[in-house]
Amino acid sequence: MVGQSPLEPSESRTAVLLEPFVHQVGGHMSMMKYDEHTVCKPLVLQELSFYESLPLAMRQFTPQYKGVVSVHLKKDSLGNLTLIASPSLQTESCGRRDNPIGDSSVTIWHKCKWTTSNSSENPLVKWSHTQLTKTFKDSCPGKMLLRTDLQYHTDSLLEDANGNEAERNSYNPWGLHCHQQHLNRMSSKHNENKLHQFLLLENVVSKYNYPCILDLKMGTRQHGDDASEEKKARHIKKCEQSTSASLGVRVCGMQVYQADTGHFLCKDKYYGRKLSPEGFKQTLRQFLCNGNHLRTDLLEPIILQLKALLSVIRKQSSYRFYSSSLLIIYEGQEHKEKDNHLHFCKSNCPTSHTRVDVRMIDFAHTTFKGSKCNHTMYDGPDHGYIFGLENLIKILQNISEGK
């Protein structure tokens, strides 16, 4: 029955029903929403090793690590698939986190349902329109223009090869796409009793009403030390054919709130791979444009944070951040500080420091001296990552100067 809890009475006191994270704009691994301030993702030992030994200087530029939780797949008699987290089964590393998640007896679930498609051509899991709309409204308060055709197909692009907008969505479909693939992989490979370990991480966009997010794949090399020869060749080719080789950075995903339409304009990794250096610059400009004007007020705080990160990365000897991403985030809802609501803005609106954020994410292929999963030892800082940061800062400075 629709609306019925997928949890058994004995489970509901401790279990958390995970929902797709609607603000995932890049990557291939599914991010899930655990609670308002916490997301989770499938655990990779190399990434866990990074978070457990994170240098103090890097903590302001990475999501806070909150521990590990056990997750299992649940399927009801109608074929509905859900992911259930069991806080009571958290591993020991959870006890070492700085800010423990609240009382695990509080069930965080929104009765979201997924059903397996009957189509043999598209054996993905589909959301119902009602539940996706509700989840997005919960995540983005305010008057949103929500379309009714919220179906996403793996072969559809948000922008076609000629650069024309194929869709204007009020949500970003990429996270749902990743979630669909992940659920199907899990259901085909494992039974329901199989416990999977997930990393618990800070939701870095939880403080934003309309989070504008740019996901940038950093560095001139993307393959990890453990990559097969086939995978290595594939990643090298992607870098050579994109701005990764020429600039050390490429667009991996984006959502930017358009104040004139109330929609998020979305781009995915396929769009980013096709960009020339000039196209990359124009996409950065587009990321800072709200449909009415260029948000020049954001350039200085973004550049300052990128310079601070650059200073930190230069000092991290032996680290190689292969295939990691950099998120640039800002609040898409502008606030005009007029006299009649100046007090409201001062107490409720993001300041120049909080309205912009820069965070490194995705460390499944990061290696460093002392890592439990170390494959190769490197000396000095990650010059490919530094090259990308320097070019990113230079391009943003040129935009700031009107070039």
From TrEMBL:
Cellular compartments per GO CC: cytoplasm; nucleus
Signal peptide positions on this chain: none
Single GO biological process annotation from the record: inositol phosphate biosynthetic process
Keyword Chloroplast: no
Keywords: ATP-binding, Kinase, Nucleotide-binding, Transferase
SUPFAM superfamilies: SAICAR synthase-like
InterPro entries: IPK, IPK_sf
Name of a matching Pfam family: IPK
Enzyme Commission code: 2.7.-.-
GO molecular function, one term: inositol hexakisphosphate kinase activity
PANTHER family: INOSITOL HEXAKISPHOSPHATE KINASE 3, INOSITOL POLYPHOSPHATE KINASE
Family: Belongs to the inositol phosphokinase (IPK) family.
Name of the featured protein: Kinase
Source organism (scientific name): Ceuthmochares aereus
